[in-house]
Specification:
Layout lengths: L15 E3 L3 E5 L7 E6 L2 E6 L2 H15 L13 E3 L1 E5 L5 E7 L7 H13 L4 E5 L1 E2 L2 E2 L8 H4 L3 E2 L17 E2 L4 H12 L4 E8 L4 H6 L25 H17 L4 E5 L9 H12 L3 E5 L13 E4 L4 H8 L3 E4 L2 H4 L15 E2 L4 H6 L15 E8 L7 H8 L2 H10 L8 H16 L21 E2 L1
Parallel strand pairs: 2-4, 7-8, 7-19, 8-13, 13-14, 14-15, 15-16, 16-17, 17-19, 18-20
Antiparallel strand pairs: 1-5, 3-4, 3-6, 9-10, 11-12
Helix pairs in contact: 2-4, 6-7
Catalytic activity: Hydrolysis of terminal non-reducing N-acetyl-D-hexosamine residues in N-acetyl-beta-D-hexosaminides
Enzyme class: hydrolase
EC number: 3.2.1.52
Length: about 450
Amino acid sequence: MNLLPRPVSCVDGGRLCEYRGWETVLVDGPPGGYRLLSSDDGVLIEAHDAAGEMNALQTLRQLLGAQAFRAAGERPSVIPACEIVDHPRFAWRGVMLDVARHFLPKREVLRYVELLSVHKLNVLHLHLTDDQGWRFEVKRYPKLTEVGAWREDSRFGDRRSGGMAGRPHGGFYTQDDLREVVEYARARHVVVIPEIDIPGHSQAAIAAYPELGLHGGGVWTDWGINERVLNTEESTVDFFRTVFDELMDVFPGEIIGLGGDEAPGHDGELVRAIARHIVRSGRRPYGWDEILESGPLPVGTIVASWRGVEGGVTAMREGHDVVMCPEQHVYLDYRQSDSPDEPIPVGTVTTLEDVYAWDPVPAGLTGEEPGRLLGAQANIWTEHLDSARRVDYAAFPRLAAFAEVMWSPAEKDPDFVARLAEHHLPRLDALGVEYRPLSGPHPWQRLPGVPGFPR
């Protein structure tokens, strides 16, 4: 069963039966897969694993209707009589959430974990540090949050406009906050992958500890690529070994993000050193596709292909596992139409239909590559998304389309948008998600006169 059920999902002629609860048994099958059988006797779930049971329960909520997605109120009492056999197409079905450019309070991160689970997405990549803010508490180096978590102002709109928000911005998560996020996600079969971005996008760290950088400076108040990067002194390497040790203590998962993108003039030694440290700690490094230019990477390194798909194809040919996230297809901060009503229009037009039409498997693969395509993730950068409401508008309903692409077979359904409108938008309404309507933004979702940078 897809995220948004196609009419053929229920095979018993649409007959309804009284909902009497469910029971689950574990059986052989593909990871994350399940069989759901509903009848007058109740609902039987046969799942390969606990993740499969969670996926089946999300399908059960879908079958019960939009009311099942509300926190309180009258509960649904009937369900279609049907048999559904289902499993995901890709193992890595992820979302990158940038909490560095604009901080999201912990409650909103927990809400996004829940939204990922509702959509059968299973990876949350948290971008925790950047030039504009450091959001991870490091007990050995308290200035990273005392200084680096706050900036005096923020660019408002495109950097070439000269406009500023006129107010400070900041915030950070304690280690206990993030352990709570990890556990909350684990219970919903969502893996949280942290990212500390090095050697570029590090101005917040340099503001806190100037000896780390080449040029000094405060926490950045602008967007775009900052040419100030970390130095490669051994003391800097040691500093970040300690930072990543604390990160790995908080995040017990196998995969640890180290960034590696947009670092002008950097030779890559810091990236390689920290990647080796992560591997020695029994984990796997995960970085943006620029890390392929850093020199030989440790076995087990995972590459996120964001500058198109070519970096991912190269990485697989070199034996690395890959996650596809090309900006022209799955950057959800990019504008959703050419309409002047789109708030702060940046990037290329990426419509709901564009996201649904995308196939994560790039042309040119032979199947003989030593590296694997693990899956894909949609990226939500927050330079121009300064609140949870703005993140909702950028993410949904495009993230629902992405979720269906990641779960379902490669063949596209011509009725996808109609199914979305009839079945899934009422669920988002029930969940309180402030998505972009299919007809365009609500008046209060527009930001007239704020310049963007459309491409």
